[in-house]
Amino acid sequence: MKVIIVGGVAGGATAAARLRRLDETAEIVVFERSGYVSYANCGLPYYIGGVITDKEELTLQTPESFWQRFRVDMRVRHEVTAIHPAEKTVDVRNLATGETFTESYDKLVLSPGARPTQPALPGVGIDRLFTLRTVEDTLKIREFIEQHHPRSAVLAGGGFIGVELMENLRELGIDVTVVQRPRQLLNPLDADMAAFLHAKLRQKGVRLHLGCTVEGFAANGDRVNVLLKNEAPLTADMVVLAIGVTPDTGLAKAAGLELGIKGSILVNDRMETSAPDIYAVGDAVQVKHFVTGQDTLLSLAGPANKQGRIAADNICGGDSRYPGSQGSSVIKVFDMTIATTGVNEKTAKQAGIDCDKVYLSPMSHAGYYPGGKVMTLKVVFEKGTYRLLGAQIVGYEGVDKRIDVLATAIHAGLSALQLKDLDLAYAPPYSSAKDPVNMAGFMIENLSHGLVEQFFPEDVDALPRDGSVTLLDVRTPGEYADGHAEGFVNLPVDDLRERLREVPVGKPVYVICQSGLRSYIACRILAQQGFKCYNLSGGWRLYETVVRDRTAAQEAWPCGMEK
Amino acid sequence: MKVIIVGGVAGGATAAARLRRLDETAEIVVFERSGYVSYANCGLPYYIGGVITDKEELTLQTPESFWQRFRVDMRVRHEVTAIHPAEKTVDVRNLATGETFTESYDKLVLSPGARPTQPALPGVGIDRLFTLRTVEDTLKIREFIEQHHPRSAVLAGGGFIGVELMENLRELGIDVTVVQRPRQLLNPLDADMAAFLHAKLRQKGVRLHLGCTVEGFAANGDRVNVLLKNEAPLTADMVVLAIGVTPDTGLAKAAGLELGIKGSILVNDRMETSAPDIYAVGDAVQVKHFVTGQDTLLSLAGPANKQGRIAADNICGGDSRYPGSQGSSVIKVFDMTIATTGVNEKTAKQAGIDCDKVYLSPMSHAGYYPGGKVMTLKVVFEKGTYRLLGAQIVGYEGVDKRIDVLATAIHAGLSALQLKDLDLAYAPPYSSAKDPVNMAGFMIENLSHGLVEQFFPEDVDALPRDGSVTLLDVRTPGEYADGHAEGFVNLPVDDLRERLREVPVGKPVYVICQSGLRSYIACRILAQQGFKCYNLSGGWRLYETVVRDRTAAQEAWPCGMEK
């Protein structure tokens, strides 16, 4: 059996190694367009920032090491230029020599990945304008920085790679401005959770130029002008385009393979394309979202690796199935960690799911043990069924742990009510006796029993201030004095029972505290006295962060105001 | 409704707060024998070590704060001396005044906890001999250390509290010796995994005196002699008994409540005892083990808190059920983290479960990102069904995360084969594209497909060295030279295909590498050439650690050799 693999990074390299382990006699040839195989895609921004100091670290394997261990013929700088499914051949060009040739296959695995989206804008292609996807791109950016010591950079786009690059450029002392049309970074977050990210970036001196449309680029001496719609251009010593990626499926399309959304390659759960004996894996394929069941694209290394293994299994006569992706992701942003799994509220609603949510602000570990920090956790679930849909966490230590617990719960089909029962490991340096995930379960159970009703930051400003409802802030006078929502009256929870007569009878009560816990207790007191009560989920902490984000965006960049 | 709660720490305090949130009108009285309520049991060793500096930190709530927020009447230094289920009353003694009185109840919650096992040995009770369970115990030990500056301590017993205390005393510069009859510390670990813990403790200068029986204690001037069977006594400036805990159920027994193992209180999954309107929670109650279904005792804060909440729900007319405990636990040991969930191999076998296991040594995060460290992960599962039974992890960063993912998988009833499918969050600072938990799943799937067969460290010494089997070490010559198992011949995996003729045909081959990965690849090469092959699970790394642990125990302490 002769297997040809197009693309030697995550999915392709995994498929090659697995194939060899399953079949010692197969001929396995990998064509990789770049000069590197099996490289650490996700490490590239850290090489630019000097966190990863040795270039060798980026290339997990070389063609030589792959040959030695796996007898896989890894041909770098070889580009497959055409697939002929009927003949079961591919046309290949050796980029070093220009030579072209044809190779036959019994089985073909496509792992072409995705390439940075290149907007069709004037000036794309000029000097000092970079993209970041391959080792070569990385080396180019790092070399530029070392030679030219840029003092400023504009990043167009704020996805995972973009945000990682922000951090790494900033840590090098470079003045960083981010510009993009969407009003928030990291699309897997809902806007309220992104507010914490924005705050951290602003604190670290990154300028956020959100809601602005880039219209082109122009050389300006040794610098680059980034042309904006309705606004003066930004000028910087370098620009990186990180607008997003597009499945690199020109080959598949030309070969007549069935395509999915955004030109991705259509595969079934065995990673088989529409053409016999052709498999496809990684960023280039369309997958089912594990939660919504909808078709989706996800550029993540975990799924690519799993899919490569599955394709190899099936090529060797197995029956391995890919269960779908749920988009679990995590990113370090300076000292902060941000993680998501499943779908966010925005996506759930777009998918037509009737969803509810809780926010909580637990400590990463027991408050009495030094070093604990607050995280903000948002859990989204389906109304009525309590099906877990997704979670987002922003914080420091322990964020990645809780997202993986929630990812596992979602994968296993646990209901949101079962989160309270999880028997998680506790010791003071690691967690609390009631882990944040348990706490989310307790809160959702309380909702399910009607013990409390919620309102949300987005509802606060619309509440009537005409006396028709009661607005209570149950924090201490000191906390209240430090900042509070307009129209909310201070009545500390511990005084509530004695001062109950101050709460007007017959009117709904909206209660705020710092994180939502004391206001929940206040709601329980009031509800049992016959009041109709609503608890601000996420508390003042979340509300204030969202409001400050909005204010900062408005003050900093007038164009952020465009429709 | 009047509710009396006996014991105001984890389970009792949680029940009190939940009761109030559910019922604003109930009269809630808590009797707590010690001077503190709702204190941080798990933080006590860290106060002794000065990690937690402020005593106030240990007491999460005070009677005053509980009254202010919850209108719960917390009476410290009040001991309940008798329960009269027929009359629905309890007798109480005020330990401060000596006054006794009787209180009636509608509902009673028992949360008496467990007390340190006091062996019936000569000398128990002498000066400088301590136990550690309450805030008072903690203050006494810390005060002793501050006043007397002990230079040496003997700890009798090596459970969680014992090991935490070892670390804290050691960090104070005290010479620590641990003595106990069992040959390993931390019973939730299997002996092979405990070897890593022992190695760390020895490295930190803790003397392990395992397999030795303590026969008594005797004052020796300002010091204490610890009398040992078949050996000279140990002498130290202080001794702490941390042999274990016993359910504190004298009250329940005297009241005629049905008891379970070790005198624990029998409850159903609603936390109801055998007597009407009496509930019990926490360390004193017998629980079902979630994995084995067997009755068990577990002294852990997480379950106690959950049970307190459940009892309160049911008292208020709800129907909350406790699903059982799976014993998830985590402990910091100097810079190391050790965690377990479910049952270990030893317990599974005792429960009559036919089990199998895998060991792996993955990095905590991507190898190319700085700071990653190796962890050792053992997953135990049922043969044939691939039901997950338990996991143990010893390592550094990320250990607590993986145990919680595995705990969630076990709770959700995922099979060991499904671990490979979990969509976990990956970025270089947090994990690898194939997370350690995924890797365990891949390995177990390989076993299930017959792609590889395993042997284990405990099998190595018994392998014939008479040429009837082939013993291969497929690491590099350098690694082999640094240390290898007797009789194993070096043949690096990358040379195996070329030197295949050196492997005698017709004999089983046992293959070792460092962690088990290269030997797996070698096994795949050999198996496809017709060899019957066995891969050393855990590799040289695990084998060497187990052997060194055995040697160190033998060399250090002759009495460790007793039968």
Spatial gap, N to C terminus of chain A: 58 Å
**Regarding CATH, which class of the largest domain in chain A?**
Alpha Beta
Radius of gyration of chain A: 26 Å
Give the biggest sheet of chain A. 5 strands, parallel
Which residues of chain A form runs of ≥5 with pLDDT under 50?
none
As a percent range, the share of strand residues of chain A is 15-25%
Oligomeric grouping of the chains: homodimer
CATH superfamily of the largest domain in chain A: FAD/NAD(P)-binding domain
Number of strands of chain A: 30
Largest binding interface between chains:
A-B, 90 and 91 residues
Biggest β-sheet: strands ordered side by side in the sheet of chain A: 3-2-1-7-18
Decide which structural class fits the backbone of chain A: alpha/beta
Domain Rhodanese (chains A, B): 465-552
Family (chains A, B): Belongs to the class-III pyridine nucleotide-disulfide oxidoreductase family.
InterPro entries (chains A, B): FAD-bd_OxRdtase, FAD/NAD-bd_sf, FAD/NAD-binding_dom, FAD/NAD-linked_Rdtase_dimer_sf, Pyr_nucl-diS_OxRdtase_dimer, Rhodanese-like_dom, Rhodanese-like_dom_sf
Protein name (chains A, B): FAD-dependent oxidoreductase
Fill in the keyword field for this structure.
alpha/beta; FAD/NAD(P)-binding domain; homodimer; 5-stranded parallel β-sheet; 563 residues; 30 strands; 16 helices; globular
In short:
Chains A, B: One of its GO terms (molecular function) is oxidoreductase activity. The structure is a homodimer of 563-residue chains. Chain A has four domains: 2-115 and 246-315, FAD/NAD(P)-binding domain (3-Layer(bba) Sandwich), CATH 3.50.50; 129-243, FAD/NAD(P)-binding domain; 335-448, FAD/NAD(P)-binding domain (3-Layer(bba) Sandwich), CATH 3.50.50.60; 454-536, Rhodanese-like domain (Oxidized Rhodanese, domain 1), CATH 3.40.250.
